[in-house]
Amino acid sequence: MRSNAFICCLLAILSLLFFIWSPLESSDNKNMINKNIIERTDAEWKKILSPEQYRILREAGTERPNGKIYIEIKKQGPGTYYCVGCDAELFSSKEKFDSKCGWPSFYDPSKAKNVKTSVDYLLGYPRTEVLCAVCDGHLGHVFEGEGFDTPTDKRYCINGTVLKFVPLSEVKTKDSDSSVGKNINK
């Protein structure tokens, strides 16, 4: 009887280790592996990002719900949201909705090639993490099947601190500018 309990515990531990060490899986773009991920040292990231942005984007942190940035994002009109780390286009205000969860919510990325997902087990259960495909920065998590009246029934719950909003009038200018895709934070 003890050997059965030991075997069950051992299998549970091995399963957990497998999930922790398994390679990141991209559910939105399973075959896409971005070989051009922006790589910087921690010191370089810290020069570009605020301490809070660094904590969230580079260390998979989470901002507090219903914060100042969340309130600002709720008030923003038409435009596009870019990654603060690399300026990759991530979300459009067209897909933004108020899920009343305390974080900005989108039902679909505007440029799916710049957003990837992977399963994380940091809390002991599987969650689908949302990452920037260009700089591999943590953005938040995506949840499915919550019953929101959106075309995808998905909620991309994103940390507003790692989003840079560009109003629609400036997006048109940015898209025609040669600096698109380059880090304009410098």
The CATH superfamily name is Peptide methionine sulfoxide reductase
Order of strands, main sheet, comes to 3-4-8-7-6-5
Low-confidence runs of at least 5 consecutive residues:
3-33, 178-186
Question: What structural category arises from helix and sheet content?
Answer: alpha+beta
**How many β-strands, per DSSP?**
9
In sequence order, what are the helices and strands, one letter per element? HHHHEEEEEEEEEH
User: What would the average pLDDT be, to the nearest integer?
Assistant: 80
How far apart are the first and last residues' alpha carbons, in Å?
Answer: 64 Å
Gyration radius from CA atoms, angstroms: 18 Å
The CATH topology comes to Metal Binding Protein, Guanine Nucleotide Exchange Factor, Chain A
Largest sheet data: 6 strands, antiparallel
| Helix percentage range | 25-40%
CATH architecture: Beta Complex
Number of domains: 1
**Number of DSSP helical runs:** 5
In a nutshell, what does this entry contain?
The protein is built from five helices and nine strands.
